[in-house]
Amino acid sequence: MRGDDSLEFGIPLMDTHAFAEEIYSRVPRQSSGLNQYQKQERGVSSPVEALLKALDLLFALSALNNLVELTEVGRRMAEFPLDPMLSKMIVASEKFKCSDDIISIAAMLSVGSIFYHLKDKQVHADNARMNFYTRNIGDHIALLKVYNSWKETNYSTQWCMKIIYR
């Protein structure tokens, strides 16, 4: 490594982040013994196949051009330490003038489940969650509704507890 935050072959670390994260997330972890790989849930059978799937995704997101170089969109996506699909969603939101909502949705998707389930309050938690699903809206809009409801209460802890204990 050089001291200028670039890899030895000249690609800035920021530009490689999303690409590396995507590839790392798809490459099977090495198990005991040389060249033995565990199949992951995605059914990836080899590092080469994993790399090709990662490249396919990055091409589909317009992050790479035909020379397998980062595009301008890819460079902007790499600015976000997120899953490439979430990064693309944020980059595209500028065009549609909905960045605030998209950033909120991306944040909600990045933290895992937001509904805490107490074993004895499972039904209450499920009912509370379903209150955010109206008129056949999808998960992303439901998450945005949850966030906006919480925001309206000035990020109240009591509001969160009320959702669980309704």
Question: Cα-atom Rg, whole angstroms?
Answer: 20 Å
The biggest sheet amounts to:
none
Question: Structural class, judged by helices and strands?
Answer: mainly alpha
Helicity range: 55-70%
Q: How many domains?
A: 2
Please state roughly what percent of the residues sit in beta strands, choosing from under 5%, 5-15%, 15-25%, 25-35%, 35-45% or over 45%.
Answer: under 5%
Topology:
Elements (H helix, E strand, L loop, with lengths): L12 H14 L20 H14 L11 H7 L5 H13 L2 H12 L11 H9 L8 H14 L4 H9 L1
Helix pairs in contact: 1-2, 1-3, 3-4, 4-5, 5-7
What do these coordinates show?
- It comes from Phaseolus angularis.
- Its EC number is 3.6.4.13.
- It catalyses: ATP + H2O = ADP + phosphate + H(+).
- Keywords: ATP-binding, Nucleotide-binding.
- GO terms for molecular function: ATP binding; RNA binding; RNA helicase activity.
- The chain has eight helices and no strands.
- 55% of the residues lie in helices and 0% in strands.
- It is an all-alpha fold and 166 residues long.
- The protein starts with 12 loop residues before the first helix and ends with a helix.
- The protein has helices at residues 13-26, 47-60, 72-78, 84-96, 99-110, 122-130, 139-152, 157-165.
- Residues 1-17 and 27-41 have low confidence and may be disordered.
- Helix 1 packs across helix 2 (47-60) and helix 5 packs across helix 7.
- It folds into two domains: 13-97, Four Helix Bundle (Hemerythrin (Met), subunit A) (Up-down Bundle), CATH 1.20.120; 119-165, no CATH class.
